[in-house]
Design brief:
Length: 410
């Protein structure tokens, strides 16, 4: 029996879906793991499971009405929202997901979610076609962006006869996911990055020449993603501004996709408020064609063609200039005089630190699983020999954490 959820107050929100029949077992497993569980049902949830069963297994009266004077007298809904250490919504129907994504407070469950500071985990469950509908995916992306954790769904046979994604994650796996989350939170709750906002840019940018051609580079985004992951594991709230082709990030990482350097600049500044640490790993195009052609450029008789390029904004330089992030770390992709060029770049852009890789070595850097870097900051330089980007990321985040901790005492 797991006991890692001991002392945890879990508010279980149940919405209308066939998977609700599994929730008495879910409550039982949560209680076995040490949690105290209070259940809130939506009106539709009553069609699939009884409040009597849920009250019996949780040991608490089940709540389902914002306007029930008797329930409000024993524990008002604001009190209930404060009681929760975490909120789990399982099953989460398309309808409850839409309400939460829109900040709608039309019933008790959605009101509690708005009124509670507790982290929210959502286990979607619905017909596979509904789950894959762009509107549902859009709402889930919004919730992810708001910091909610989406667990599942599983894929397989559905009660309606369909096959595909939309089955609620099994109760045992939901308890495991909450337990792992709790262990990770406990492990990082004393580290300097815990609860801090870290923004990472990663991947290439694309600058259009015409509707079908562009200027870009070989960045895969892997180094930046590995850093985002390491920062997340260190307890940070991480937002990634990702260029085209960057693989999926962990579900707990907020992600904003962009194509051009100008878009990256705009999204970075739109999300910069309260950023504690900014890490610019992206390979941003310094120049873009002055005028992208509206139509595909045709082959002409003349052998040569000329473009005028204009400068893109220096994104990291502009972040450093605002003084809003406590620590600003850049990367430098160099092919010659690597260390000296990087030292100059750090000073010129006003960065706290810069990480340089020699991209003339094709076994590291761009689009490889390995890297070899030197971190340069005001107090010194640290070299990390060739190793997987994930290992480099762990070590860099440890160093950046020290820089951040030092910035707090100055
Ligand atoms: O993505 P991968 O395949 O994993 O490869 C990783 C990497 C090689 C891309 C990465 O390790 C790296 O070196 N990233 C920086 C690449 C780069 O553009 O370097 P730069 O020296 O041109 O830029 C210096 C710094 O200024 C960088 O932090 C860059 O994000 C930033 N910059 C650059 C230009 C610009 N207009 N705005 C910026 O913010």
């Amino acid at each position: 029996m797991m006991s890692d959820l001991s002392e945890q107050h879990i508010l279980l929100g149940i919405s209308g879906g066939i998977a609700a029949y599994k929730t008495p077992i879910l409550v039982r497993r949560l209680v076995e793991a040490g949690a105290r569980v209070q259940v809130v049902m939506t009106a539709n949830a009553h069609k699939f499971v009884t409040a009597t069963s849920l009250q019996a297994v949780s040991g608490f009266p089940v709540r389902d009405n914002l306007w029930d004077p008797a329930a409000e007298a024993s524990m008002g809904h604001i009190e209930l929202a404060r009681w929760a250490d975490q909120i789990l919504i399982a099953p989460a129907s398309a309808s409850v997901i839409a309400r939460l994504a829109n900040g709608d407070a039309s019933d008790l469950l959605s009101t509690l979610c708005l009124a509670s500071p507790a982290p929210i985990s959502i286990a979607p469950a619905m017909n596979q076609q509904m789950f894959q509908h762009p509107a549902v995916q859009r709402n889930l992306a919004t919730l992810r962006g708001d910091g909610c954790r989406i667990i599942g769904p599983d894929s397989g046979d559905q009660a309606c006869g369909d096959q595909g994604p939309g089955r609620m994650t099994e109760p045992e796996d939901l308890v495991m996911a909450l337990t792992q989350q709790q262990l990770a939170t406990d492990a990082t709750s004393n580290t300097p990055l815990h609860g801090r906002k870290v923004m990472v840019t990663t991947g290439p940018t694309r600058e259009a020449i015409d509707p079908v051609r562009y200027i870009s580079n070989h960045s895969s985004g892997l180094q930046g993603l590995a850093i985002a992951e390491a920062a997340r594991r260190a307890g940070a709230n991480v937002i990634v501004i990702a260029g085209p082709g960057v693989p999926e990030a962990h579900g707990d990482i907020q992600r904003v996709d962009i194509t051009t350097a100008q878009q990256m600049h705009d999204e970075v500044h739109a999300h910069l408020a309260n950023t504690d640490v900014f890490i610019g790993v992206a390979a941003v195009a310094d120049y873009r064609p002055a005028n992208a052609a509206a139509q595909k450029i045709k082959r002409h008789k003349q052998d040569e063609m000329q473009f005028t390029l204009v400068q893109n904004p220096d994104i990291i330089g502009s972040v450093a200039q605002t003084g809003r992030a406590k620590v600003v770390v850049g990367f430098a992709a160099e092919t010659n005089d690597t260390l000296q060029n990087a030292r100059d770049k750090r000073t010129r852009k006003g960065l706290d630190a810069i990480v340089v890789n020699d991209v003339s070595d094709h076994s590291i850097g761009f689009n490889n699983s390995d890297n070899a870097v030197t971190l340069i900051h005001q107090q010194g330089e640290v070299e990390f020999a060739r190793q997987p980007k994930t290992a480099i990321a762990e070590k860099l985040v440890a160093q950046i954490t020290d820089l951040f901790a030092a910035s707090l005492v100055h």
